[in-house]
Amino acid sequence: MDKDPFKEYIKQSEPSKRDKGYAWHTAIGLQAVDGLKPSKYLIDTAIKNIEGDISIDEAQELLNTYYEENPKTDTEDRTEEADKVAVRIARILSEKAFSFTPNEYISIHKKLFAGIYGHAGKLRDYNITKKEWVLNGATVLYGSASELRTTLDYDFAEERKFSYKNLSMEDIIHHLAIFVSRLWQIHVFGEGNTRTTAVFFIKYLRTLGFDVTNDIFAENAWYFRNALVRANYNDLKNGVHETTEYLELFLRNLLLDEKNELHNRSMHISGRFEETDFESAKADIESQKADIRNKLLAFSDVISEKTINHTFELFSKCGKEEYFGRTIVEDITGLKSTRASELIKLLVDSKVIVSVTGHGKGKYRFQ
Q: Which residues of the chain have pLDDT under 70?
């Protein structure tokens, strides 16, 4: 989210508000890994919970009642999923109970996605590929469906017997990066894998004595996912090697409160997004805007300046890295549902944006 009202809560000295603020801030931020954005109703409800006006149970009940009375008819609108999963993440992060087992990991997926995905809490029984922006459209090689449980059990067993004794923080962070990247790469769930892995990992870090109550997960969820991707991809003939360096930067910020810059563009395997010259970057953006304008006007000479400006607004917020759906278009441009859908269709037809797979239905990015 562009403006998260919970960020101030995690800076408070009052433990109850700080911890709840962190749980909600993280819960909402993690929806970004699937391009989702919770509703204003959820935010208002969450604030009531942080302030102590309602319990987390009451917050969840209010949310369920809200969607019973206001059912979504648009199958591409995943706001309900974002809201329900966010409140469930907030609940789990607020609980102290945790066991480091494969069953706990699977149980978290079930708790997060029950009633949303038919396969909640079930291991996938099919093989998958996902086109990744950071890999220029290539995919990570995910775990084979026939070996998921065996691989999961093995990774847990290896981590359980690993000793952190006498390790430097550098070595600890390196090992944690390897563990979480391997856990994620198995991809035992068809959907919701990254959100489940993040929640489980946060709970595990707490058992190791880390506080983990800052805003790193909330504000860098997509970076976290891309860092996991880069930790599991090789293309040796083109000089691309799997690396945990990006994940380690993320973890250093999370666990040591360092201020390393986390940019998705720095992870792109082409290297062409590594731009340090501000003037050059600014000129490039203007060039890209000119290209967008030319594509739109070439498609139709009756496109209004207002439509072009809406497109620029969207491009300025998302760039070529972020993927988005109709809800985000509405939020950025202020357009109503129907007009936002019409704008998306225009941008697709004029080849300004392209459909993105692997992140749920109705997701796009600029070309």
A: 1-4, 272-284
Pick the last residue of a domain from 274, 292, 323.
274
Domain stop point among 95, 114, 138? 95
Verify that 303 and 326 share a domain, yes or no: yes
Q: Which residues, in sequence order, are CB contacts of 226 under 8 Å at separation 6+?
A: 132, 133, 134, 246, 264, 267
Q: The pTM is what?
A: 0.75
Query: Whole-angstrom Cα distance, residue 4 to residue 86?
Result: 13
Q: Report the distance separating Cα 309 and Cα 307, nearest Å.
A: 5
Q: Looking at the chain, how many residues does it have?
A: 367
Q: What is the DSSP string of 169-238?
A: HHHHHHHHHHHHHHHHHH--SSSSHHHHHHHHHHHHHHHTT----SSHHHH-HHHHHHHHHHTT--BGGG
* Structural domain count, the chain: 3
Do 361 and 265 share a domain, yes or no? Answer: no
